[in-house]
Fold these 2 entries.
Entry 1:
Amino acid sequence: MNILLKGGTVVSSKSSKKADVLISGEKIIAIGKNLNTDAEVVDVTSKLLFPGFIDAHTHFALEVSDTVTADDFEFGTKSAIAGGTTTIIDFATQNKGENLSCALNNWHVKAFSNSSCDYAFHMAISDWNNDIKNELPAMFEQGVTSFKVYMTYPLMKLCDKEIFDVLTELKKFGGIAGVHCENAGIIDGLVEEKRRLNQLTVSSHPLTRPDYAEAEAVNRLLNIAYAVNTPVIIVHLSTKAALDEVMRARARGQKVYVETCPQYLLLDEEKYSLDFSESSKYVCSPPVRKAIDRKSLWRALKHEEIQTVSTDHCSFTIEQKGAGESDFTKVPNGMPGVETRGFLMYTYGVKKKRISVSQMCAYLSENPAKLYGMYPKKGAIKVGSDADIVIYDPRVKQVIKVENMHSKCDYSPFENVKIDGSIDSVYLRGYKVFDGKNIMNEKIGRYVSRGRFDL
Ligand code: URP
Ligand code: ZN
Ligand code: ZN
């Protein structure tokens, strides 16, 4: 039986227009005014229809800091669906000494038959040598076309020459790197200083990862990309200083894509002054920042200087965070976010008139689909696209409560935050997977083999 979503407002990056949407099987087959068919009619009057959100930055079932993230693919993807995210791109992560095929296979095993939303993988490269270089063609053949490189974290970081080589190789295949930009030397030096002074509470976390450490790494990366003459993505950009570096590089003609996350748009570093049980919830890298940074990021979204808003969902329970009670460097880094991104961007972006509803669609759906080689299968309500649709009811008011969420994490960094709107329902490839409260048709998520970036 076909499904007709009738009377809603269809949002794209260009417009929001009243139109009916007809779904047959897994695809959208017609869009228009007053469509009449013998399909099952779903009345979506007064509701917004977004292309299923894409979260291009999640870490599910990641082994890190002597533990494993609270959300695996089962819980993480349910949490995604309940937040309107129908596709995630997780970071398959190469451990040092491991090859890329092994890392990719590990991630397929974690995700396969456990995922309630569709999923794809970036490959995080932590070890670079000739054998790894020779594996790149196989990655592209298997639909992995974007790669993460870290400029910090002892177990992950590559040096400048290695980054130069990675970018050079990716360029040959039309691939792209997303880079975690923080200056490792500055961070390590400042941490040593804090240790010497025995200042090991969470309040030291932002002080050891200052904005200039991010800006310096962005600047260095962009010079490396300039030398290679290739585009690059800055992931989870958090500061005005770093954004200024991006703008300078663009002014000399470079193609630079920027991702930010709701925590950098909405949370203040004052969180790190709270008691350990609270402050540890916000330990992530880069840390959350100051008002001047948030203002600059919102302005950049308004002017489309940032291309995507993802979450960097990397969840740990309060108990797991407790590992760093007497030493902030031992708090596992990261926070949950995959379930709250759409609500936060609608309420604090669209309703506050910082961005338009079409820009929200661009940042959460259309741009990530294009940037990561999935458009127009994903990221669009168009004839022929997958019927991944979020039906958002802007009239409802609610408050974020972890008890209503689907993640395995036992807190939300946005607990008690007021929200305009709620998700009425979510469709994934034509299947109704969320009714506003419950996940339905669990674990039908499929691997998405991606093409080259095109934004
Ligand atoms: O603190 C964070 N962001 N943890 C996740 C790993 C990363 O750097 O993206
Ligand atoms: Zn990172
Ligand atoms: Zn991350």
Note: DSSP finds 14 helices and 20 strands in the chain.
Entry 2:
Amino acid sequence: MMLLQITEPASQIPKTTPQSCAIGIDLGTTNSVVAIWENGKPKVLEDNIGPLFMPSVVNTASGELRSTKRMMHQPTNIIKGEYTALTAAQEILKTLKKRAENALGHPVEQAVITVPAYFDDTARQATKDAASLAGLEVLRLINEPTAAALAYGLDEGKEGTFAVYDLGGGTFDVSILSMRKGVFQVLATGGHIQLGGDDIDALIANHFKWDDHQKARLAKENLSHGVTDELLNALCNPLIDQTLLICVQAIKDAGITKNQLDGIILVGGSTRLQTVRSAVQTFFEQEPLINLDPDCVVAFGAALQAHQLTHGVDTLLLDVIPISLGIETMGGIVEVIIPRNSPIPIRMAQDFTTYENGQTAISIHVVQGEREFVKDCRSLAQFTLTGIPPMLSGAARIRLTFSVDADGLLTVSAQEQTTGIAQQVEVKPSYGLTAEDYAAMLRQSFEHGKEDLNNRLLIAAKIKAEQLIAQLESALAIDAHLLDETTINDLKICIEAIKSQLSTQDRISIQEHCDKLALLAQPFAEKRIANAIKQKFQHQTIS
Ligand code: ADP
Ligand code: MG
């Protein structure tokens, strides 16, 4: 078996010279914005073409490429021509860099870039890769809602617990944050990867039977062509309700109640709609904050963070991981190591052991998801820890450590505790998840929670039963002579009873029979120990 590469996790805050200028980039699905922090204020850059508020569109030989950010979970899949999500992001960032340089009149090499809170390891890494291919060093990736809160928090000097409601062109995102004395913590996040202004455009086009969604978008933004507040109200109702349901869950995840929120921050172009604002206000029972431009607030936060990182201002920024990280254990069951909504950076460890006697290698399968079974989760990486000395099953202690750095990137290390054999591996996220898969992941975890748990308990009971039977059968093969016929018979009957139940769903009965078998086998175990001691004693006196 192959040994894995050993690497160090990189989570150091980059050091830069104080006079360098780093930009903040909101790399949006629909629009991208570049801002800097100047004289204690955020400012959207402006070059000879206009403000750096630019559609996230790539012009290719075979037409326009839009919303490529949705594909960042599969960054190397071809979308069109030779373009992938990675190269499209690279193109957009290259243009933003060039225009920022024109606006500032000097080279720009560093940036803080925002990503959606739901971006996984693959998408985050791809964003960093795209930036570096475009000639930008990423000082830090920060979550979009965190950036918005950062802009509001320090700009307005507000403290408390806040909700960030972000309805953009194609996505919805909500985060619950607490802000205390310049320390930000994301308590919970939630969202939907395919819910936003584009859907509203589609509803309008459908209502008027227009083919042109672009026309619908303009009509919506300008309240023209027969589109009114009343119509938008009626059309958008179900869509807005969906976002509010996600808010309910996020508030629950954060362990607070609605009335504990000190403010609601509105982010994203679609929150300009009056119907959205009123619905948000009614739901949260308070007027949302709108003093900062909802289109620019994310870029403002990124600009502020860039300024702080290059000027050594000590702001602690805490974020959370959006989806639980864990490993596969026997029976395809997921053991969560870092639960969803844990603040990052974070390091968590848990001990595991071998399943079979004499096992010298252990296969570690890192997964991401909210379901109880590996088959329902996303596979992130797989590696094998070798060189475990042969021991009885259950004797080895393998400590797995998961660490997620400030950018949300994951490193997994494994160490066998009795010998100290250690391997640290950087998990290379495996590509191959569609945006739909991702959105489904969170939804299904709520839908299947109870059924998953029952299945998990059943499979765990079966594995325990199989182990008990295997141990007992191998003991009988060696030491049956220590027992009388009746006892052997009783044990065998009980073993057969359990075996016949292993194909059923009757967890309680399996567990009861296992308890009975363990009780029956107790005197046998004692006899075996006594016998082993006796033999050892004889052996020692002979030699
Ligand atoms: P993203 O974060 O996905 O890049 P934005 O925050 O830039 O998106 O929001 C883009 C969306 O905002 C589009 O669907 C656009 O139609 C919508 N939008 C922009 N201005 C308005 C407006 N005045 N009224 C309603 N929707 C608007
Ligand atoms: Mg946005």
Note: The longest helix spans residues 507-542.
